[in-house]
Structures are given as structure tokens and as C-alpha cells.
Inverse folding.
């Protein structure tokens, strides 16, 4: 089971660090493109069930946006840590034995990396996909471990270190997929623009957005 952690693309509520550099409506449109391309990436995998986990207030809007093509489940509690706890509690309770939570802004990830995450999870208690900024773009487990994310301050540069400290405390064997980058700040967007200019088919909706905003994104360098 691959569960995309998502929000509804509401003005001022998504990718807020990018609004320091770009207009809020443009950033909201970008997030929608990232989400739709991420869902397309997920559904390209063979033999993997897909679902979306989101804040309860976003459930109806996301279900409508995604055309009711995928199960959209409301998380318990507020924030990403509560969302991750909800993913493993909910889906392991329904009988899923290999559950991976994946962020909604990495549609440029190679499908083979997601396949490898499931392979790693087959022989480990936990699998983690580290990001270059000290966080992680995916985390998977075979069972619910509430202490793994409890009271975590997600989105800070030490998120990965804190997660790994907890896997050690809980004595969980941990495997890793290759490091990657997600889209949080202007430099990430510059990297993505460069990548999708060479291979727009990786994330066509996002590549189209970047085409519309290429001059603004180019100016982020300065």
C-alpha cells in the first residue's frame, strides 16, 4: 500500500515557503500539479494499492479534485506527524502488511525507487527515503509504531535524525532508498525546472506549470 500524504490546494495553505519568492496563487497551482503528477507516478506502479491521507477538512475537496479515482482517508489529529501515525494505524488495521507513506511533491522520483522501497521493506521493519535537507520523502513500516512520530516537529532539518533515533530506541531494523529532493524552497524549484526541461514526461503537469512560470523561476537564482 502506497499512501500519498496530501493537502487540498488551498490558497496560502500549501508550499508556504515558496510564497516568499512567487505569488500565492501560482504556488497553489504548482502544488496541484505536483499532487496530480505524484498520483500519476503512484498509479504507474504494478501491483500496488494507492490511497491518499489528508487533513479531515480537506477530504471532500481532494476526493472531488482527484475524481474519486483513489481512496481519500482523513487523518486523526492535526499536522504531518499525526498524519503519518494515522497512515500506519489505519492501513495496518485493514490488513495491509507493507505500508509506505510518500510525500505529494516528488513526482520526478523514478518509479524504480518506489519499487525498491517495497523490496527493502520486505526484509526490514522500516524503510526511509532521505531528502537532501535532513528530512525524508517516504517512510514505510509493516506495523503501527505510534512512538515513531509522536510529538515530532516535522519539516525541520533534523526530522530524519529524530526518526532514526526512534527506530533505534524501538529496535526496528531500518533500510534506505536513495537520497532525493522534494520541493520546499526556491532552490528545489530551480533543480526541478532543470530536470524537467530535459525530461518533461516525468511530471507533465508540473513541467507545463514551469513553462508558464519559467521566467519567474529563472529569476529566483538572483
Amino acid at each position: 500500500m502506497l499512501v500519498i500524504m496530501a493537502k487540498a490546494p488551498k490558497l496560502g495553505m500549501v508550499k508556504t515557503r515558496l510564497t516568499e519568492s512567487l505569488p500565492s496563487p501560482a504556488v497553489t497551482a504548482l502544488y496541484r500539479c505536483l499532487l496530480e503528477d505524484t498520483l500519476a507516478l503512484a498509479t504507474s506502479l504494478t501491483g500496488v494499492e494507492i490511497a491518499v491521507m489528508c487533513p479531515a477538512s480537506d477530504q471532500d475537496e481532494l476526493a472531488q479534485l482527484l475524481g474519486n479515482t483513489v481512496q481519500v482517508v482523513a487523518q486523526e489529529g492535526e499536522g504531518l506527524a499525526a498524519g503519518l501515525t494515522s497512515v500506519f494505524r489505519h492501513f495496518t488495521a485493514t490488513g495491509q502488511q507493507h505500508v509506505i507513506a510518500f510525500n505529494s511533491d516528488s513526482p520526478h522520483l523514478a518509479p524504480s525507487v518506489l519499487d525498491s522501497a517495497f523490496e527493502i521493506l520486505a526484509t526490514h521493519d522500516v524503510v526511509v527515503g532521505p531528502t537532501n535537507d535532513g528530512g525524508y520523502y517516504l517512510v514505510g513500516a509493516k506495523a503501527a509504531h505510534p512512538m515513531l512520530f509522536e510529538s515530532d516537529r516535522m519539516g525541520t532539518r533534523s526530522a530524519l535524525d529524530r526518526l532514526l533515533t526512534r527506530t533505534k530506541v524501538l529496535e526496528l531494523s531500518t533500510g534506505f532508498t536513495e537520497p532525493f529532493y522534494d520541493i520546499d524552497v526556491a532552490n528545489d524549484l530551480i533543480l526541478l525546472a532543470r530536470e524537467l526541461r530535459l525530461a518533461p514526461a516525468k511530471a507533465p503537469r508540473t513541467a507545463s506549470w514551469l513553462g508558464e512560470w519559467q521566467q519567474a523561476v529563472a529569476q529566483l537564482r538572483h
Q: What stands out?
A: The mean pLDDT is 92. The longest strand covers residues 136-141.
